[in-house]
């Protein structure tokens, strides 16, 4: 399924649902004001294409090093857009190729991605009637169900990527996709892996298995968001997470022993 078709599916995806992490008010705002795609995001999409759908890369992307603010570039970009291609600079293309090569040089990543269905759009309906969707990077059913997600990151090593996986709720995202596989493909619960590749030197690729207990915490997180979203939709109210008066407290990192000589401060009225 092409990307425009996926975007037009009238169902809830994880990228939208995760805005509930900031509260209903934040969710409603983001629903009305989607974040525009930045060039960094565009390069990330291109990386996914090179890794997961390399045969499609040349039909989707063109290389051009003209100044992006110049009229010549804008004219060229318009021509490429008509042909369905996005422009990348040669430096961006070189980085994309390096990242893809890093994945290709990781034996476990290659094993996981062999004989996979990639960039798959899945749709399913939850027991409460909510229509859901997910665009999965890669999966396979034989000899057993496996779900694979590909992430680029500044630092794929465990101490850094574990923090990113928590902050970005990757564990909830993968639990959402796993539910989608079970419901849409009528398969047993899959083994879940994340292929994390550095987007800067040394461009290291590390494969992570996501344990069932971590996925269970992810499921608990997104189910809480769904319950809160359902209540908001029924009431028509999307309040701030910080209703009423909040107590102003010092941040946790503020040192207890820090002292201020208030007597030496001049009061300004």
Strand content: 15-25%
Question: How many helical elements?
Answer: 11
Element-by-element helix/strand order: HHHHHEHEHHEEEHHEEH
* CATH architectural arrangement of the largest domain: Alpha-Beta Complex
Name the structural class: alpha/beta
The main sheet orders its strands as 3-4-5-6-7
Task: Please tell me how large the radius of gyration is.
Answer: 22 Å
Q: What distance separates the N and C termini?
A: 65 Å
In short:
By secondary structure, this protein is an alpha/beta fold.
Please tag this protein with its features:
two-stranded parallel sheet; Lambda Exonuclease, Chain A; alpha/beta; globular; 269 residues; 2 domains; five-stranded mixed beta sheet
Written overview of the protein:
The chain has helices spanning 3-8, 14-17, 24-32, 39-52, 57-60, 71-82, 90-104, 107-113, 158-167, 170-185, 212-235; strands at residues 61-63, 86-88, 117-125, 131-140, 146-153, 191-198, 205-209. It is globular and about 55 Å long. It has 11 helices and 7 strands. The chain has 2 domains: 24-104, no CATH class; 106-235, Lambda Exonuclease, Chain A. Strands 3-4-5-6-7 form a 5-stranded mixed β-sheet. It has a two-stranded parallel sheet with strand order 1-2. It has 269 residues and is α/β, with parallel strands linked by helices.
């Amino acid at each position: 399924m092409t990307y425009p078709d996926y975007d037009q599916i009238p169902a809830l995806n994880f990228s939208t649902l995760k805005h509930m992490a900031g509260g209903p008010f934040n969710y409603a705002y983001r629903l009305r004001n989607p974040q525009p795609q930045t060039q960094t995001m565009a390069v990330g999409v291109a990386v996914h294409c090179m890794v997961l759908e390399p045969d499609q890369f040349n039909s989707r992307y063109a290389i051009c090093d003209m100044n992006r603010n110049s009229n010549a570039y804008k004219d060229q970009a318009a021509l490429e857009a008509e042909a369905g291609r996005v422009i990348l600079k040669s430096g961006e293309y070189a980085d994309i190729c390096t990242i893809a090569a890093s994945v290709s040089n990781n034996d476990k990543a290659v094993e996981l991605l062999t004989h996979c269905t990639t960039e798959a759009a899945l749709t399913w309906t939850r027991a409460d009637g909510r229509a859901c969707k997910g665009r999965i990077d890669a999966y396979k059913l034989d000899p057993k169900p496996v779900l694979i997600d590909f992430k680029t990151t500044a630092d794929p090593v465990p101490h850094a990527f574990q923090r990113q996986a928590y902050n970005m709720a990757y564990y909830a995202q993968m639990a959402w996709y796993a539910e989608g596989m079970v419901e849409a493909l009528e398969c047993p619960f899959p083994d879940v892996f994340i292929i994390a590749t550095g987007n800067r030197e040394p461009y290291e690729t590390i494969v992570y298995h996501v344990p069932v207990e971590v996925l269970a915490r992810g499921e608990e997180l997104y189910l809480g968001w769904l319950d809160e979203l359902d209540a908001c939709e029924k009431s028509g109210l999307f309040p701030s997470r910080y209703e009423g008066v909040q107590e102003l407290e010092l941040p946790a990192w503020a040192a207890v022993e820090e002292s201020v000589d208030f007597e030496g401060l001049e009061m300004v009225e």
